[in-house]
Amino acid sequence: MTKEEIFEKLKAILAEDFEIDPDKIKPEAQLYTDLEFDSIDAVDLIVKMKEYVPGKIDPEQFKTVRTVQDAVDLIFTLIQG
User: Fold this and answer.
1) Alpha carbon of 9 to those of 25, 73: distances in Å?
2) Is the dihedral of CA 56, 36, 6, 62 positive or negative?
3) CA dihedral of residues 7, 17, 74, 35 (deg, nearest 10)
4) Per-residue pLDDT for 55 more than 80?
5) What are the backbone angles phi and psi of residue 6, rounded to the nearest 5°?
6) How many domains is the chain partitioned into structurally?
7) How far, in Å, CA of 17 to CA of 79, rounded?
8) What is each CA distance from 78 to 21, 33, 44, in whole angstroms?
9) How many other CB atoms sit within 10 Å of the CB of residue 27?
């Protein structure tokens, strides 16, 4: 899966499950300020992304994620193993 494909899946999840305006979902968007995420939303997002990532996702890995692109990069790294 490419980073572009990951971004598109992430964008779909954010728009559908978190009811975020798709126009706001850009790689540079800050999850906690621009998209008004909270810690529960972050956990929910990790759970939703598990189907694309082989093995377990350690929530600690997501502590450094601040932007949509950070999430894409981390998921890409986890998929590459």
Assistant:
1) 12, 13
2) negative
3) 80
4) no
5) -65, -45
6) 1
7) 22
8) 27, 25, 17
9) 15
Whole-model pTM over 0.85: yes
Question: Is the distance from CB of 71 to CB of 35 less than 8 angstroms?
Answer: no
pLDDT digits (tens, 9 = 90+) for 31-43: 999 999 988 998 8
CB atoms closer than 10 angstroms to residue 25: 19
List Cβ<8 Å contacts ≥24 apart for 56-65: 65/31
Residue reference for tokens 């694309």: 52
What is the widest separation between alpha-carbon atoms in the chain? 32
Tell me the backbone φ, ψ of residue 38, rounded to 5 degrees: -125, 180
Residue 21 domain boundaries: 3-80
- Phi, psi at 60, each rounded to 5°: -60, -35
What's 64's domain CATH number? Answer: 1.10.1200.10
